[in-house]
Amino acid sequence: MPSTADSPLSFGVIGLGRMAQALVTPWLEAGLLHREQLQLSVASEASAQALRQRFGCPVHTEPSACLAVSELLLALKPQQLDGLVEQLGGRTAIAAAAANRAGPPLLISVLAGVSSERLQDCFPGWRVVRTVPNTPALVRQGLVGLAFGDGLSPEQQQRVQTLFAAVGEVLELPESQLPAFLALTSSGPAFVALVAEALADGAVAAGLPRARAHHLAHRTLAGTAALLFEQELHPGELKDMVSSPAGATIAGIRVLEQSNLRSALIEAVVRAAERSRELG
Questions:
Q1: What Rg do the C-alpha atoms of the chain give, in angstroms?
Q2: Among 152, 150, 98, which Cα is nearest to 126's?
Q3: Are the C-beta atoms of 109 and 130 separated by less than 8 Å?
Q4: Phi and psi at residue 74, in whole multiples of 5°?
Q5: How many CA atoms lie within 13 A of 50 on its CB side?
Q6: CB 66 within 8 A of CB 40
Q7: Residue-wise DSSP of 177-207
Q8: pTM of the predicted model, to two decimals?
Q9: DSSP string of 124-146?
């Protein structure tokens, strides 16, 4: 295996789905990564060919090519982790790759629910950080939760902070809080999208054309979120601001309360957090 001891920013990515691409693209654009430093790995040759054209760097179908790096983004599905360890030659080979570096290499994981302890067991000799980015990272409006494992140098911690700041707001959290963070910020966009779709359907039922209903629903959600955030309003304050006595809004809220919308959203977040722990 070739040494990359003289290339401290050599960077590998195993698994290049939408989230990994949403991270790598702005990192390249911001100059935080350079194509000549990248080693990427995907499962199929067809995907590899397409990604070679997009990123202009080596894309392999054998993940072992990504072991000779000093920084590795692990972005496959949690259920694939054990199979990956086997593909990489087992823990002994992974530890040997770490020993071949000038210093302990950095493993950045976006695997939902997979604990730092398990990652460290699978990648002995590596320094581990768990990250939970969400899909708004695609438009640089992401939220990213970080939980650092043991032994990261201050430089490695700063490197991770800098990388993820390029796609949104970064929060360092205790690892025990990551499932709740994932349920709210990573699963939450799907819940919000469902609300947006339902609001648009309601507007269509009330008489608006479909395209206009979708546009207005999206803009309403975006504007409401901006108002809550920028004026630091409690959601209840905003609700009361637009709910006049015997008016249209409070009539609609009454229906939502009768339908247990609030309870359904609470339970959706709790169940998503539970499932995150199960996946780990």
A1: 22
A2: 98
A3: yes
A4: -100, 115
A5: 8
A6: yes
A7: GHHHHIIIIISHHHHHHHHHHHHHHHHHHHT
A8: 0.89
A9: TTSEEEEEEE-GGGGGT-EEEEE
Indicate the residue type of 113.
G
Report which of 62, 143, 75 is spatially closest to residue 107, judged by C-alpha positions.
75
Which letter does DSSP use for residue 35 in this model?
Answer: G
Tell me which residue of 150, 130, 7 sits closest to 73, measured CA to CA: 130
Beta pairing partners, 11: 38, 71
Please give the Cα distance from 226 to 221 (Å, whole number): 9
Q: Give 48-111 as a DSSP string.
A: HHHHHHHH-S-EESSGGGGSSSSEEEE-S-GGGHHHHHHHTTHHHHHHHHHHTSSS--EEEE--
* 127-133 and 71-74 beta bridge pairing: unpaired
Q: How many CB atoms lie within 10 A of CB 243?
A: 14
Q: Say how many C-beta atoms besides its own lie within 10 A of residue 237's C-beta.
A: 11
Angle at 236 between CA 230 and CA 240, to 5 degrees: 100
Looking up tokens 């939450």 gives 188
Looking up tokens 């140098």, which residue turns up?
Answer: 153
Q: How confident is the model at residue 279 (pLDDT cuts 50, 70, 90)?
A: confident
What pLDDT digit, counting tens, does each position of 52-100 carry?
A: 988 888 899 999 989 889 999 999 999 999 999 999 999 999 999 899 8
